[in-house]
């Protein structure tokens, strides 16, 4: 059966997605064309083949990797066939720069090693001075980072002396230059460097590969051994390096590092100005009082200089009395409180509780006995009534009224004379005693020789 083009392409798409499906592809980015829709269309290639790729808008916006031609990448996604053109295509969901997996493994291994040695422990961190007089910068002499940091220093603390020791912050061998600079400022007198109160090791943002020199062990050990407090300010807030963990303080950005280590100059000026005004007002008040006292002495208003002190001495006496009275009241209040607590504790003493429970049990016992006696009396009366009723209805009482019970030889009661054949011996029970009789039609003698005059029996 012949297939249409769309049917064949659909079969090819299902076959590719079913047999190949999700994959990770490593290669070099060829042509790369971001579309106005937000999608990114590009090719990935190696020395033998090339593959069309697409990364849709939402995945492209979430990706931290900006694709560019010639870039080595790892692509996570799914192989499929684009039915509109019938071409094999790789739909990308995530992008990672090639080699980052190995770098991340090296990062974690070194992090575990240094942590085990205690280089990250808070106990080994140096305290930063609150008001540094001089700061050393270890960063690149070019670029926006050093300019941004200089502007923040000028705005917040222009009196701080800032010294720059330029180093390479990217590329092969940069880690040795950074480590040497840190060690040199740790022994500033040997290398002819000016003494500083703290160091800032800084660099702007970038990829993991760009900032890898700050993840080298030589840099970490140089920072850990430095006798001067070191602030690490590498990358952006989401970037973390080994230098951040070893340093005495980690700053999210280089400019944030300057703000963390410097006091706010304008705020400090305002606070000092306020303190100065308060000191002036206080001094003026003291001066006015002293001038008044001196004027009174000059005018001979007092016979002796002690006259000036007497009011104050009297005031001190008053304060002493007030203090003693307040403490006496406070102590008495404490004693009263202790007395109340003592009474409350006595009331809650186990012996008191047991006594109360004993009294309660005694009361319950009396109530129980009274209730039992009442119930017993009621039950006894009911029982006597029932006994009287039973006795009144008993067969013996019936016999006392002149009735008799007649039983056959088998012990059964006789209720009908026709059912008893002649000559049958019967047993008669009376109110007092029993006797035996024989059934006679003409009223014969009893079997025992007793003469009876029954009517038919």
From TrEMBL:
<keyword id="KW-0269">Exonuclease</keyword>
<keyword id="KW-0963">Cytoplasm</keyword>
<feature type="domain" description="OB-fold nucleic acid binding">
    <location>
        <begin position="3"/>
        <end position="95"/>
    </location>
</feature>
<dbReference type="Pfam" id="PF13742">
    <property type="entry name" value="tRNA_anti_2"/>
</dbReference>
<protein>
    <recommendedName>
        <fullName>Exodeoxyribonuclease 7 large subunit</fullName>
        <ecNumber>3.1.11.6</ecNumber>
    </recommendedName>
</protein>
<dbReference type="InterPro" id="IPR020579">
    <property type="entry name" value="Exonuc_VII_lsu_C"/>
</dbReference>
<dbReference type="InterPro" id="IPR025824">
    <property type="entry name" value="OB-fold_nuc-bd_dom"/>
</dbReference>
<dbReference type="GO" id="GO:0003676">
    <property type="term" value="F:nucleic acid binding"/>
</dbReference>
<feature type="domain" description="Exonuclease VII large subunit C-terminal">
    <location>
        <begin position="119"/>
        <end position="436"/>
    </location>
</feature>
<dbReference type="Pfam" id="PF02601">
    <property type="entry name" value="Exonuc_VII_L"/>
</dbReference>
<comment type="function">
    <text>Bidirectionally degrades single-stranded DNA into large acid-insoluble oligonucleotides, which are then degraded further into small acid-soluble oligonucleotides.</text>
</comment>
<dbReference type="GO" id="GO:0008855">
    <property type="term" value="F:exodeoxyribonuclease VII activity"/>
</dbReference>
<dbReference type="InterPro" id="IPR003753">
    <property type="entry name" value="Exonuc_VII_L"/>
</dbReference>
<dbReference type="GO" id="GO:0005737">
    <property type="term" value="C:cytoplasm"/>
</dbReference>
<comment type="similarity">
    <text>Belongs to the XseA family.</text>
</comment>
<dbReference type="GO" id="GO:0006308">
    <property type="term" value="P:DNA catabolic process"/>
</dbReference>
<keyword id="KW-0540">Nuclease</keyword>
<keyword id="KW-0378">Hydrolase</keyword>
<comment type="subunit">
    <text>Heterooligomer composed of large and small subunits.</text>
</comment>
<dbReference type="GO" id="GO:0009318">
    <property type="term" value="C:exodeoxyribonuclease VII complex"/>
</dbReference>
